Recover the amino acids of this structure.
């Protein structure tokens, strides 16, 4: 089960699913529903945290991708005071609200910023404030939560996660000061499996009707509800120490887009700039040479062992890389294809011959000619030193640069997505057998 939707106490909400007391109401009037991500440039914990790369994607890109792909919003916005955040937001399909200095201070609250946005956008009836630091958010979370407002007539819905933590009262460290339990009886400590735990806000999102925001000055009303997210999707990033943990979590549980393949069967990889580092070595005799990293060749073999066909791409404009590809192709058994100025024109027939769709294809490129393939492939990546035009088109940006392990990194990413798909299919079978 992906989530639980419940009413707040007082609404008779003590069971899963649609509730008798949560009367479902379909309104004939058209509501304008807007997603709003607050992304101030002055983060103290991690400078420009909102656009720092997490698993190859700007942090804010994870939630923008989920919001856009949910198809539930009439508009998707980023509220920011920083030009670099504005550029990233637009690249990921969002409109930008340039917030005023009055709501860009360290002391400014989220509510004040949301109220400013609402004043300047009077057509918006429902605002979903999505936290930029929640990279494991999926479109289905937003869809199910919004339906609680549009179909069940709640005035607000916010996300929670279930925690199993015993809490104790904080006291001054002085003689005679003793702590007390807040949510347990020490004489009857429950086992985890016998205790339902407690619901805690995880901050992923807050859906709120305009009236609550503007007239009552709150994000959660009396006629509100919570939406429970499973712990694996509940990730927050505040300080540097959170980053590596969040990166591993998002690689396993993050949302990578509509066309993320269940199983990649074919991978195209540019030799120049991906398997090489862009440098040409000259011998004393004037012979040109390039190098290749053994980690990258191991990445190719890892994919081949998992029955992923790897095709190496070269260009007539780079004869040195072409010679390397021929040697590498013989050693690894990879087919080598020469592509022209628009690689997509040469690769489409290969995909069709194998009776595959582009969502079943992975592509690794490194420059402007590769943009069409990077956009079209189910999984796509560029090395960490690729130009911005290629980075913006790719679904994953490697930490490693070209010729220094980028191919190996992308291969591991592909295989992790394959593992995720297998686990999900297994879980789906378990869920279906329980009915």
């Amino acid at each position: 089960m992906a989530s639980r939707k419940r009413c707040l106490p007082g609404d008779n909400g003590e069971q899963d699913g649609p509730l008798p007391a949560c009367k479902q109401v379909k309104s004939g009037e058209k509501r304008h529903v807007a997603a709003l991500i607050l992304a101030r440039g002055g983060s103290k914990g991690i400078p420009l945290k909102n656009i720092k790369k997490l698993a190859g994607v700007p942090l804010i890109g994870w939630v923008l991708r989920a919001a856009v792909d949910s198809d539930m919003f009439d508009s998707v916005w980023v509220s920011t005071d920083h030009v670099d955040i504005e550029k990233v937001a637009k690249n990921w399909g969002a409109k930008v609200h340039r917030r005023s200095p009055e709501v860009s201070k360290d002391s400014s609250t989220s509510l004040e910023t949301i109220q400013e946005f609402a004043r300047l956008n009077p057509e918006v009836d429902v605002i979903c404030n999505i936290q930029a630091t929640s990279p494991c958010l999926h479109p289905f979370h937003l869809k199910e939560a919004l339906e609680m407002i549009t179909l069940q007539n709640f005035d607000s819905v916010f996300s929670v996660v279930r925690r199993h933590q015993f809490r104790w009262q904080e006291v001054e460290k002085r003689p005679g000061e003793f702590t007390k339990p807040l949510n347990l009886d020490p004489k009857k400590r429950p086992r985890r499996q016998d205790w339902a735990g407690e619901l805690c806000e995880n901050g992923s999102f807050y859906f709120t009707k305009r009236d609550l925001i503007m007239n009552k000055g709150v994000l959660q009303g009396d006629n509100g509800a919570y939406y429970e997210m499973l712990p694996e999707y509940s990730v927050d990033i505040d300080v540097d120490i959170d980053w590596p943990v969040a990166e591993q979590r998002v690689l396993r549980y993050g949302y990578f887009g509509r066309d993320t393949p269940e199983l990649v069967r074919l991978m195209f990889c540019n030799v120049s700039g991906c398997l090489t580092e862009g440098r040409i070595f000259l011998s004393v005799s004037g012979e040109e040479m390039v190098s290749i990293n053994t980690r990258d060749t191991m990445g190719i073999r890892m994919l081949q062992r998992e029955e992923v066909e790897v095709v190496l791409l070269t260009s007539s404009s780079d004869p040195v890389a072409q010679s390397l590809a021929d040697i590498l192709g013989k050693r690894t058994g990879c087919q080598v294809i020469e592509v022209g100025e628009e690689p997509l024109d040469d690769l489409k027939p290969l995909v069709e011959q194998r009776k595959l769709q582009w969502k079943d294809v992975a592509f690794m490129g490194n420059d402007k000619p590769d943009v069409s393939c990077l956009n079209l492939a189910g999984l796509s990546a560029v090395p960490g030193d690729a130009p911005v035009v290629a980075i913006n088109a790719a679904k994953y940006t490697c930490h490693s640069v070209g010729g220094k392990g980028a191919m190996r990194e992308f291969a591991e990413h592909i295989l992790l997505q394959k593992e995720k798909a297998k686990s999900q299919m297994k879980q789906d079978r378990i869920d279906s057998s329980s009915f």
Q: What stands out?
A: The domain at 3-184+192-253 is CATH 3.90.550.10 (Spore Coat Polysaccharide Biosynthesis Protein SpsA; Chain A). The radius of gyration is 25 Å. Residues 98 and 355 are 47 Å apart (CA to CA). Residues 1-28, 427-432 have pLDDT under 50 and may be disordered.
